[in-house]
Fold this protein.
Amino acid sequence: MLSVLKHPLADHVVTHLRDKTTKPATFRTLAYQLTLMLAIDATRDLETEPKAVETPLEATTGRVLAHEPIVVVAILRAGVSMVQPFLDVFPDVSVGYVGLERDHATAVARSYYKKLPPLAGRRVFVVDPMLATGGSAAQAIDVVKQAGGAAPRLVCIIAAPEGVETVSRRHPDASIHVAVLDRALNERKYILPGLGDFGDRLYGT
Ligand code: PRP
Ligand code: URA
């Protein structure tokens, strides 16, 4: 299942993120803002439970998040930019990392690192801003499932149709949440119109 953010603010922020004149400091802020919107969208079915509270005017019963731990698994390196928004809004989050890097010639991802908290019985969100061929995301979801994470959600800022297709085929149980679905990949497997290399723009490399 693919969910695309449809919100004027998301469109506004993505457009500034795409702009090649946007500097790394602003780029990081925009990535934070978009991830916050995506985190809210991707968690709209979290369990809640009733809680009695007293307002300054009267007693009432509201709802609060049930004690359902969330795990965010970031794909290094660019996925690191998407961790903090989850940590800032959800009370109980643990974080894992999977290191994957695309070979510049083949665009095939190579795994170089893995550190995961317990995943069984937890809601797992795999975060990576760019879903291009889908190779990195599908490989990261393989790792999550091998470690006991069931039906993880993939949260990305920009996706290409090819990446959505690959992940949906290899992991039909994984829902995909994106801010925007772009047109296609170029011959070097970069997303068009895209924003270029997210990690390089994030870290100024
Ligand atoms: C980028 C991006 C994804 C991957 C997407 O990472 O952050 O992880 O490419 O491409 P794919 O869908 O074709 O696999 P990259 O390999 O450039 O590493 P980096 O985050 O260290 O820059
Ligand atoms: N990784 C990126 O950072 N950008 C792309 O367009 C494709 C993969």
